[in-house]
Design a protein that fits this description.
Distance between the termini: 27 Å
């Protein structure tokens, strides 16, 4: 099992990432970009929460952050590669957040389409996760994502590997999940798709927290049938179309600010 105590001087560099599969470097760059974007948008939680991406190939390895780094420090080469049992691949002393391993391995094991999994603890995500009624369909943002959101009850900090089966069962075939009393999670066929889905979910949660300042009894519900119409207009596959334009734009933004995530 991977440890949860990190040596600050034990990070790999590009030259020391061994046995790199075809497509792995591209996955590393995209995932490092996602970490930087989470920090840029103010969604990080010090060194906690985690994003992961599957390494292309049959080995079922995935990449995750080295525990102890802030998200704005993450680079492609600093990501740790582990297997579904939490064992390091190619480095002798990685440091991985154990709850992160539990949550992410659960989804990667259960879903072949889960090339990327992202989990956050934003204030707005946690706030909605603590609301008994969950995500309300009162905004366009919520209607575009809400039909694809599952829920998982809180079981404590995710140290228990037995929780993996329940996480996967609760997610089912959905691409987003609100972890009750905890935060948000999304799944994607690519890092970019997963990040965009996370953006839509976080945006919906933020709007909900703000609109509830008016009081639940003063909210304007959409007209009958509109939520179903939006559901039809925004199938889960539609995020991939948005990714084709939005993800390259986000990468260009990062390159203007600091291209160091690519190293």
């Amino acid at each position: 099992m991977a440890t949860i105590v990190r040596k600050p001087d034990a990070l790999p560099d590009v030259a020391s990432v061994p046995d790199m599969a075809p497509g792995e470097w591209e996955a590393r760059v995209d995932l490092a970009a996602a970490y930087r974007l989470v920090a840029l948008f103010g969604w990080d939680d010090l060194i906690f929460t985690h994003l992961s991406a599957r390494v292309p190939g049959p080995e079922h390895h995935f990449l995750i952050n080295s525990f102890g780094m802030t998200f704005e420090e993450i680079t492609a080469s600093s990501l740790v590669k582990i297997d579904l049992n939490g064992h390091p691949v190619g480095v002798s002393d990685p440091s991985v957040n154990l709850p992160g391993f539990t949550i992410h391995s659960a989804i990667h094991m259960a879903r072949e389409d889960a090339a990327a999994v992202m989990h956050l603890h934003t204030p707005q995500g946690q706030a909605v996760s603590a609301m008994a009624f969950g995500l309300l369909p009162n905004t366009q943002s919520a209607m575009t994502i809400g039909h694809d959101v599952a829920y998982h009850d809180y079981e404590g900090i995710a140290f228990d590997l037995d929780e993996r089966e329940r996480l996967a069962n609760d997610l089912g075939d959905k691409h987003a999940m609100i972890l009750r009393n905890h935060g948000t999670l999304t799944v994607g066929a690519t890092v970019g798709e997963c990040f965009l889905r996370l953006y839509f979910l976080e945006r919906a949660c933020q709007a909900q927290v703000m609109m509830l300042a008016a009081g639940l009894d003063r909210l304007l519900a959409p007209p009958d049938g509109v939520a179903d119409k939006v559901r039809q207009q925004t199938p889960p596959a539609g995020v991939a179309k948005a990714e084709a334009l939005a993800w390259p734009a986000l990468l260009r933004r990062l390159d203007r600010l600091d291209p160091g995530f690519r190293t």
